[in-house]
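Running this now, will post back.
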Amino acid sequence: MNMNDPQVWVLIGTFSAVLVGVLGLTTTLTLRTVRAGFEKIEAEFRAVDATIGAVRHEMLGAVTALKSDVSRLEGVMNARFETVDQRFESVDRRLDGLDRDVTALTRRVLGDGA
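Update: finished.
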């Protein structure tokens, strides 16, 4: 089978067109696949971001509740310390009175020179 010049050029053009078409199709499909992969990854990042936001919100609520509990406990402790301080002052006054009485008794029993 002998081919003349126009037939050879037609075959070269046809193969070139097919090659360019396959290359274009392959490139387009590859780009679509890559874009779909990136969209999937982006969706996963959004889901992770939403989860982190929910955890952050929950943690802020827990910290606020903890601050409230600590403040309440601080108030209770301060009130109890005030009560203890008052009791110590009462005991201190009693001890001062007892010391004064013991000093007076000692002077009376042993005399003023003791």
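The mean pLDDT is 93. More later if anyone needs it.
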